[in-house]
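tl;dr need the bound structure. longer version: we got a ligand (NAP) that a collaborator sent over and nobodys looked at where it sits. i said id run it. heres the input, straight from their email, havent touched it
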Amino acid sequence: MTRRFKWGLLGTGAIARTFATALRECNTGELAAIGSRSMEAAERFARDFPATVHGTYEELLANPEVDVVYISTPHPMHAEWAIKAAEAGKHVLCEKPLTLNHAEAVAVIDAARANDVFLMEAFMYRCHPQTERLIELIREGAIGEVRLIQATFSFLAGWNLESRLLNNRLGGGGILDVGCYCTSMARLIAGAVSGQPFLDPDELKAVGQIGGESRVDEFAVASLKFPNGVLAQLATGVRLSLESFVRISGEDGNILVPSPWVIGRQPGEAKLIVTRDGRSEEIVINETRSPFAIEADTVGHYIHAKQSPKMSWADSLGNMKTLDRWREQIGLIYDSEKMAELPNQ
Ligand SMILES: NC(=O)c1ccc[n+]([C@@H]2O[C@H](COP(=O)([O-])OP(=O)(O)OC[C@H]3O[C@@H](n4cnc5c(N)ncnc54)[C@H](OP(=O)(O)O)[C@@H]3O)[C@@H](O)[C@H]2O)c1
């Protein structure tokens, strides 16, 4: 019988609620504990999701019942708490982006390795069978030689400079919040073209609009060229209402992914549209479980291997490096990354 891993949630925000709901349909694990910076928030959360409550993150990590920790703080706190969780001997599922930048990601992965724990960056779309089928189609040559990947993920956040999305100190902006999905998808598909789990671009050119008040990238685009000749166009933003999609164009046709990221649960919503010779065919993926439940079961499945092939450590490092390059091109350095802000300077 599969062991039911005990999950501890670190942070009680919006996505923690989605994840806790999904844990109810997880086959390999269950919610055991909730950790918040305040007991009040932990207790409020536990009214909907009954579990042991902790009024500090440290207490959650000290709970011997907890096997695996889900980190869902704003991005700048991911590194600190992923490292502390690993040092406490807990397996870790950390929300995307794994960290604020590549250097922090190296430190988190070093901590997972040193403490012999599982670690995965929480890209739930990577764990979904729709993405698996997409990769099979690319590998089978369904649209011939792949030439261009277009990926967009954006939304129009309400104008609140205190919210994590529009706040420099909380790692706001589109590139890290949702551009990371587009980057990871382009690298995944470019890799599939060459029979690799992923590829990193050798060229990246980008522009972006950094808000005068928010001081984060409110919308941004990037063009990538991979070593195998595949090109990608990425568009993202937290102040941009562009439809989210992925389209892959090859020599013989194209594949449209209408719902690439938060994959729908209604029958027929998970689908790929393949167009060849002017004719379109819909490939429906029969999966109605929450993508977050599938993600949690991916953790349960690979926990003893310490990393998952759905989003390996090397893949996360390559993604963070690419996001660093995108931000560098548009001139976005977070205050916390500036020398003057670093301790002991
Ligand atoms: N995979 C997905 O589909 C998905 C979707 C949305 C977000 N995310 C990721 O999940 C993370 C959290 O996003 P969210 O939308 O859930 O954010 P949110 O609603 O703002 O919640 C963040 C939580 O982090 C904790 N926190 C710790 N330090 C904080 C600080 N200094 N300021 C504010 N909150 C702090 C708080 O919990 P306590 O008060 O309990 O400590 C807070 O409720 C982000 O990294 C984001 O990229 C992923």
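gonna send this back to them w/ a short note. The pocket of NAP is lined by residues 11-16, 36-38, 41, 72-75, 77, 95-96, 122, 124, 164, 170, 177, 262 (CB under 6 Å).
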